Amino acid sequence: MADLSELVKAYDVRGVVPDQWDEALAELFGAAFVQVTGASAVVVGHDMRPSSPGLARAFGQGAAGQGADVTEIGLCSTDQLYFASGRLDLPGAMFTASHNPARYNGIKMCRAGAAPVGQDTGLSEIRALVEQWSAEGGAPRADRQRGTLAQRDMLADYADYLRSLVDLTAIRPLKVVVDAGNGMGGHTVPTVFEGLPLELDALYFELDGTFPNHEANPLDPKNIVDLQHRVRETGADLGLAFDGDADRCFVVDEKGDPVAPSAITALVAARELAGSPGATVIHNLITSWSVPEVVRENGGTPVRTRVGHSFIKEEMARTGAIFGGEHSAHYYFRDFWNADTGMLAALHVLAALGEQDGTLSALVARYDRYASSGEINSTVDDQAGRAAAVEAAYADRDDTELDRLDGLTVTGPDWWFNLRASNTEPLLRLNVEARDAGTVARIRDEVLSVVRA
Questions:
Q1: Of 346, 352, 354, whose CA–CA distance to 197 is shortest?
Q2: In this structure, are 139 and 161 located in the same domain?
Q3: Do residues 247 and 272 both lie within one domain?
Q4: Which of 80, 203, 257, 422 is most buried per CB count within 10 Å?
Q5: Do residues 181 and 124 share a domain?
Q6: What are residue 120's phi and psi, to 5 degrees?
Q7: What was the pLDDT predicted at 143?
Q8: End-of-domain residue from the set 235, 258, 281
């Protein structure tokens, strides 16, 4: 019987190949996916990792064995798979381990219309079936005819759809450096940008799941150093960096300085609200104070949620929100089936910059209003005990408010911090924001002195 305790996460499947899983297990996941979703047809895609084509094909064989017709879209970004799920109205599976090292692979699954599959929405049932069938030596024979496998290229349709949502045809010409990190951005960016008034300077567009140049994780500052240097060296208007499966996009300005994802969230929110006055915008509780401020200033209604795509997508569906953003550079759009797409956010940034004559740093300054610490991780033996000690330190202060929507958030007169436990590691994650850097440093040091005591 396969041990899936380390393989099946809260929102996806992810582990080392072939140590933790292989094509035989992928086939069982495909069969279980069809059983749990009741699908008569599914769409499957994969990234550029060496193990991805075989795993994706095995998953498709398992799905077909249960009677589902399988549309294989081949190499794609995760948001391209979400597009296919939405456009075809089919459940889908994307084979990727995003920014993880080359030996990893995983599955991101969704129901028809890109609706998420997580522990509470089918993933726990899929895991139970895979465990059962692995112990029994395979999935049971389906009581319907075996499904078919057919190939379909949807890259051009994906690009056309995104360009229909953001019109860049009339912007001034822009010089853009894009670092694809040898990931799927190297596959999608040329087609999406084709014919637009953009001079593309391509960094690491060769698809290579061994990541020979740097990890495809732009959240780590060391992985955008090459992008920053190229932007400064060439005098480009901006730089874009995509993670391995190209569902997240990070931005640097013309100086090579990183633009905070909260500033991008605020910028895109303002643009979306211009076309839908009074609409709701979702933001997680670690995004900057500037996000709800900008939403209100543009006539929208901000709604604060927990961290994580399942919570964002639930709230978007519940409220009919037009847009949602997270501090981790995940951006969600109602017009994209409430799914996240870094590419669509990038097109909004390009349009906003190209519709005026100023620089990107000047443009985003109106959305980047506060000082922040970034995420600071502390390894602790007793997450709950250390978090409780921090809560006790602030509970009786007259100038603070505490809430526990997601971890502990403490808000003071001109600052706030959030302390959350990692679900997968013995870590406490701290984020601090304030009106000035000195206050950020003071609050950061106060909290860490308790966390690390």
A1: 354
A2: no
A3: no
A4: 80
A5: no
A6: -90, 0
A7: 87
A8: 258
Evaluate whether residue 352 is within a structural domain.
Answer: no
pLDDT of residue 277: 92
User: By the 8 A CB rule, do 298 and 274 touch?
Assistant: yes
Q: Rounded to whole angstroms, how far apart are CA atoms 13 and 2?
A: 13
> For the segment 122-133, what is each residue's pLDDT rounded down to a tens digit?
999 999 999 999
Both tokens of 232, joined, read 């400064």
Tell me which of 52, 77, 85, 98 is the catalytic residue. Answer: 98
The tokens for 253 are 């300005």
**Are 48 and 141 members of one domain?**
yes
Instruction: Collect the ranges in the chain with pLDDT lower than 70.
Output: none
CATH of the domain at 44: 3.40.120.10
Neighbouring CB atoms inside 10 A of 259's CB total 22
247 and 194 fall within a common domain? yes
Q: Which pLDDT belongs to residue 429?
A: 97
pLDDT for position 11: 87
CA 444, 448, 451, 453 dihedral sign is negative
Measure the CA angle with vertex 383, ends 380 and 384; round to 5°. Answer: 150
422 is catalytic: no
Q: Are residues 112 and 233 in the same domain?
A: no
- How crowded is residue 413: how many other Cβ atoms within 10 Å of its Cβ? 9
pLDDT on residue 422? 87
Residue closest to 256 by CA, chosen among 242, 240, 244: 240
Overall pTM > 0.70: yes
CA neighbor of 300 nearest in space, from 287, 291, 289 = 291
Residue 402, helix vs strand vs coil: strand
**Residue 384 is part of which domain span?**
371-451
**26 lies in the same domain as 127:** yes
Cα(431)–Cα(451) distance, integer angstroms: 13
pLDDT of residue 432: 98
| Tokens standing for residue 333 | 């759009």
Main-chain dihedrals φ then ψ at residue 376, nearest 5 degrees: -115, 120
Residue 92 is classified by DSSP as E
Whether residues 97 and 191 share a domain: the answer is: no
